[in-house]
Design goal:
The chain has about 375 residues and is α/β, with parallel strands linked by helices. The protein is built from 16 helices and 13 strands.
Length: about 375
């Protein structure tokens, strides 16, 4: 078996880094094709760890023909027997290239749920990719249901949850915690409400901002820390407008922080509230927050539907409910016994389902099946 991972438009991703190290440790012959990721953090990481990396650049799916044939050439010359594609451009280019190169095992992982508004072109792309793939990895039950609705037969679908280095989240680096606190909360404001999400309408950040505005009436020193900020996301204008209604000292906006393991220690509370059950495909941040021991407020979207229980490992709020988010923040700040119980149960609940050994074992079984 000669395996090739094809990944598109990723600069830094701990998930892919850890997977690469584990596959190497398992003596799996794997190389990488990075699309629009040349000289990024992932490119450097793979190269520094002795893995073969090829790079391709393309403006997008509509102008991807050249990239498809370049990818096909790499697959044929490297005598690849298995491909595993991740993310939109990689799925399209990799699956077509694999088919044209005669690669018999063509896998892609479905990382996306249903957008709030889906275009017919997206439906067509999904249909073509589902046909080109010989196996599709669903990262949660909701994605498996979505694939079933799209007509993908059961024998072609497999559910594999993401794996995490849970011990690393549970044991933060003290020096990094100090550095992160100094960078993002130099005045030691309290409480710090953490959010890590792209600025899209489906993430529900707008409801968090409104709830935080209410929280300031009782906690005027609170800090809303928004990570994942972007000026060009589909909801950036509206989020920016809402943030202007808050005092500047009570908001910290950050586009990206490399160290996700220790970042959660900045937060006293964590909030992640996607707006419906299916818009979140998985939601790594659910697992990361609980693994880090941060009391959290969630809506049940993506993977949360399969393991989050209200008042057992997190507080669950209805979709699009500013008032419920606000009241849950107050409850966690005022009820230390509840918060401590959620932290303890949260760590237990993620350990069995999302440990990395289980994840790698399921990948290996997929590749040799």
């Amino acid at each position: 078996m000669k395996l090739c991972y094809i990944i598109s438009e990723i600069n830094k991703a701990v998930y892919f880094e850890q997977t690469a190290l584990q596959l190497k440790a398992q003596h799996i012959d794997v190389c990488y094709i990075l699309i629009n990721g040349t000289n990024g953090e992932l490119h450097r990481f793979l190269s520094e760890n002795g893995l073969t990396v090829y790079t391709l650049e393309t403006p997008g799916i509509l102008k991807s023909t050249k990239a498809i044939f370049a990818c096909r050439k790499i697959l044929k010359e490297a005598k690849i027997t298995h491909i595993h594609c991740h993310l939109a451009l990689a799925n399209w280019i990799g699956l077509w290239a694999g088919k044209l190169a005669g690669v018999k095992t063509r896998i892609y992982t479905r990382h996306s749920g249903e957008p709030l508004n889906i275009h017919w072109k997206e439906r067509l792309i999904d249909r073509i990719q589902n046909r080109l793939a010989t196996q599709i990895v669903a990262i949660s039950g909701i994605i498996d249901e979505l694939l079933e609705k799209q007509g993908v037969p059961a024998k072609k679908r497999v559910i594999i949850y993401h794996g995490f280095d849970l011990d690393r989240f549970a044991h933060p680096n003290a020096e990094e915690v100090v550095r992160i606190s100094g960078d993002y909360n130099p005045d030691r404001q309290f409480p710090v409400i953490g959010v890590i999400a792209r600025w899209q309408e489906l993430k529900g950040i707008q409801y968090i901002i409104e709830a935080f505005q209410e929280l300031l009436k009782t906690h005027p020193d609170a800090l809303l820390s928004l990570f994942g900020a972007s000026d060009n996301a589909d909801y950036s204008h509206e989020i920016s407008r809402l943030l202007k209604q808050l005092p500047e000292r009570n908001v910290r906006v950050v586009s990206f922080e490399n160290n996700v393991y220790d970042l959660f220690q900045l937060f006293n509370l964590y909030v992640h509230v996607p707006v419906n059950p299916t818009c979140e495909a998985f939601g790594q941040t659910y697992v990361e927050a609980l693994a880090s021991g941060i009391p959290s407020v969630f809506t049940l979207s993506g993977i949360a539907r399969e393991f989050i229980t209200d008042r057992e490992n997190a507080l669950v709020v209805p979709f699009k409910s500013t008032e419920a988010i606000h009241q849950s923040m107050l409850l966690l700040l005022n009820d230390r016994t509840l918060s401590e119980r959620l932290v303890q149960n949260g760590r237990v609940s993620v350990r069995e389902l999302f440990n990395f050994d289980r994840y790698i074992a399921q990948l290996k079984a997929l590749y040799i099946s």
